[in-house]
Write a structure and sequence with these properties.
The complex is a heterodimer of chains A (about 260) and B (about 140). With about 260 residues, chain A is mainly beta. Chain A folds into two domains: about 110 residues, Alpha-Beta Complex (Sulfite Oxidase, Chain A, domain 2); about 110 residues, Immunoglobulin-like (Sandwich), CATH 2.60.40. Chain A is built from three helices and 20 strands. In chain A, strands 1, 2, 6, 7 and 8 form a five-stranded antiparallel beta sheet that branches. Chain A has a five-stranded mixed beta sheet with strand order 13-20-19-15-16, with no helix packed on it. In chain A, strands 12-14-18-17 form a four-stranded antiparallel beta sheet, with no helix packed on it. In chain A, strand 1 and strand 2 form a beta hairpin. Chain A is elongated and about 65 Å long. Chain B is mostly helical and about 140 residues long. Chain B is built from six helices and two strands. The longest helix of chain B has 13 residues. The chains are: A mainly beta (about 260), B mainly alpha (about 140). At the A-B interface, helix 1, strand 3, strand 6, strand 7 and strand 9 of A face helix 2, strand 1 and strand 2 of B. Strand 9 of chain A pairs parallel with strand 1 of chain B, so a sheet runs across the interface.
Chain lengths: ~260, ~140
């Protein structure tokens, strides 16, 4: 029985490790495969299943959630049970979980070997059309940050202070800091961070902004996690569009 | 654990364990990673879930008229909303062909092979671009 924070909704559930240990895991077990109650629209569509390595499955962080915000999981969030894999991309967060299978050989199912693959390069970044790239299963999340109360084209008054806000998360490590720039990335200042609900939770950030000259200003926000991973200046590229975490920016008009 | 979470505790151990299927190890191993825990007092009574029902909104949006829109409406809408398709990045006809064949080969879309070209032309006409570099899609199923 435990709780984890994803976003700011506390999740209630049980540790997967406790469930596996309750059943007993034999030596030689390699992976644990998860299946849910959902199926494709046509029978030819491969059943959606995802696997984790046995040590990951038993790390004490992966959990089977049944509650969110103190109530049972809503159907669209995976009622009645959903796998929660903190710090890993959501393809692993199998909804409507109804089957857990311990494997003694690597999972060769469609969704593990043919789908959700990324280039095995930093930020999963390659050049369009690049050939002979080693592909691996998508895995750990990257840090990201977002503006939530200012949009492109917003008009701010010169000389007046506006609180610029947003949210940020650290991905596979805790959020360490969030940096804000009001001059297209020339100078950066640390944003104030809101409540810390746990290593994997979103945190709110805010910065008081006072623009002293009229005209266009490009605001930028950058998250850096506890492992030192920072959002990059340039967007990554891969065929499936996975793991985008380029620094977000908005252009505002000071008048 | 707050009070409302505590309310859920009794229903746990039993339903979770019922869902497990173990497929590891054809021979009895000499060592184990973890032993089954003793069953006992921690088990509460079996609890039943309340039945829930959700009505998902059905989209009435179809593809814009044009040569091939009949094929798109008959096939793409089996799994996707028109809006989902129209919000993809603009692709070249060749890239749309890769996407269409991915749906056929990886996911079993029942689109006949002789309609692939017409559908790719149509999708390129409503959400397309001319080739201006290497293909931006890799046909990976995801």
């Amino acid at each position: 029985m435990g709780q984890r924070r994803h976003g700011k909704c506390p999740l209630g559930g049980v540790r997967l490790r406790d469930v596996l240990d309750r059943a007993g895991v034999k030596a030689g077990s390699l992976q644990v495969r998860f299946n849910g109650l959902d199926t494709g629209v046509v029978p030819q569509t491969p059943d959606f299943m995802k696997s984790l390595d046995i040590d990951h499955a038993r790390d004490g962080e992966v959990m089977i959630a049944y509650a969110m915000n103190g109530a049972l999981l809503p159907l669209l969030n995976g009622f009645p049970l959903r796998l929660v894999v903190p710090g890993w991309y959501a393809t692993y967060w199998v909804k409507m979980l109804n089957d857990i299978e311990v494997l003694d050989k690597p999972d060769d199912n469609f969704w593990t070997t043919k789908a959700y693959l990324i280039p095995d390069t930093p930020f999963a970044n390659i050049v369009p059309g690049q050939k002979d790239v080693k592909m691996v299963a998508i895995n750990r999340m990257l840090p990201r940050s977002f503006f939530t109360n200012v949009q492109n084209g917003a008009v701010l008054k010169v000389g007046q202070t506006t609180i610029v806000r947003g949210i940020a998360f650290g991905g596979d490590a805790a959020l360490a800091k969030v940096l804000f720039s009001a001059d297209s990335g020339g100078r950066w200042q640390e944003a104030r961070l809101g409540s810390d609900h746990g290593k994997y939770s979103f945190r709110q950030w805010e910065v008081p902004l006072r623009l002293s000259s009229s005209g266009l200003h490009k605001l930028m926000i950058k998250a850096i996690n506890a492992a030192g991973s920072a959002q990059p200046d340039h967007a990554n590229w891969n065929g499936a569009g996975f793991m985008r975490n380029v620094i977000e920016s908005v252009s505002v008009q000071a008048a | 654990m707050n009070a409302s979470m505590r309310d859920f505790v009794p229903m746990w151990s039993v339903p979770v364990l019922l869902g497990i299927a173990l497929a590891a190890g054809l021979t009895w191993p000499r060592t184990v990673v973890s032993k089954p825990a003793a069953k006992g007092a921690a088990n509460g009574p079996v609890q039943r879930w309340a039945k829930v029902s959700v009505d998902l909104p059905a989209s009435q949006v179809t593809f814009p008229p044009g040569n091939g829109s009949v094929i798109a409406n008959a096939n793409c809408l089996i799994c996707h909303s028109a809006g989902m398709v129209l919000r993809q990045p603009p692709l070249t006809q060749d890239e749309w062909t890769v996407e269409i064949n991915k749906m056929r080969n990886a996911f079993g879309a029942p689109l006949p092979a002789d309609q692939v070209e017409a559908l790719a032309k149509y999708l390129c006409s409503i959400n397309g671009q001319s080739p201006n570099g290497p293909p931006a899609v890799d046909g990976q199923a995801s």
